[in-house]
Amino acid sequence: MDTIASLFSFITTPVSWVIVQFHSVYGKVFGPDTGWAWGLSIVSLVILIRICLIPLFVKQIKATRAMQTLQPEMKKIQERYKNDKQRQSEEMMKLYKESGTNPLSSCLPILAQSPFFFALYHVLNGIATGSTIGVINDSLLASARKAHIFGAPLAAKFTDSSSKVEALGATLTDVRVVTAIMIVLMSASQFYTQRQLMTKNVDTTVKTPFMQQQKMLMYVFPVMFAIFGINFPVGVLVYWLTTNVWTMGQQMYVIRNNPTPGSKAQAAYLERLTKHVTHHEKTRSRGEKAIVKAIVSKGRERNEFERKFINSLTKVGLVAQADGTVVKGESPVESEDGTPTTTTPRRQQPKRQTKSQRQSTGAKPADDTADEAEPKTSLSKSDEPEDAKPATAAKKAAPKPAGGTRSRAQSGQRKGPQRPKSPSKK
User: Nearest Cα to 9, choosing from 129, 142, 133, 187?
Assistant: First the structure.
């Protein structure tokens, strides 16, 4: 253990110094030997570390979204070179290089927190064993050993024996109840953080192996916290519970204000943005302009929610510009496939008539038909050529079809010549 502590001595000294500084502040309010003073010192250490890691968290979000975008291409590469693993890895690295993404970027916040976690673990372990570490001297060590959080000492573990717990001035029941509650809260916060990421901030239009991995991690991480949590001191559990709650709140803020395109969170965000922009008739914040600018730049590649946002602005006479601003004007409304359509009403087609209506409309009085059919020329009937009269007469003298054939066809019977009936036997 001393060898491991010496390996982390470069970080244990700064961590212990930060805890002592916060303890000196909270000790004046709650008392130097109370669990509130030491517990809030650990919580403040977590908050300070997480504020410093915000740039890495932003990089993690960008890397995660970039990986989601590349999943279809990665799947094609895996299917194309499924029998050649070396070529597959080469094409994957080439794809990462062309897109400027790094799979390890999504793990940066966890990797960056690891040294602080191990340093805090060794500081609390030194308090439990009664040995000074970092800038914690004998007087601070005695004060820390007296500190209890709801009856459990900072350095006590769930797996400690009753004699060791009694040496720290507590009972085994109090230690196990407090540690069990903190482990459950730690696992539950981790599960909820991962669940809200999967249910609200994932593009549901693309089904990729990355989503299956995230679903698996949603159940694996809480189980890992529960298994390893029984070997952590109470102070370390305070550290992990605080950092999980911070991650959950930070994730909720990102999902609400900068959601993944195509996710349910984006649909809710664009609905709120539509109401806000139509009320003020402009984009007010820099974040709103960035979102609108990204939507306009996509063109026909916009998803369903983004097209609905653009069409909602158009209906109230607003147009989204390429720089992210919104001005008054008119623009074509986009259809579901992204093609622009005009807002003018379509020409209505005449209502189709039934067969009986067409026949009743076509049957006109003889006088009216003759008047309409009479040509408006200067020639009269007597002026017709002589050779045209026989042809006209021949047409008039042409025999009509058998009686009743046309009427029977109109009444629904088969058209054409009818089969003669067989003679009846007398």
Answer: 133
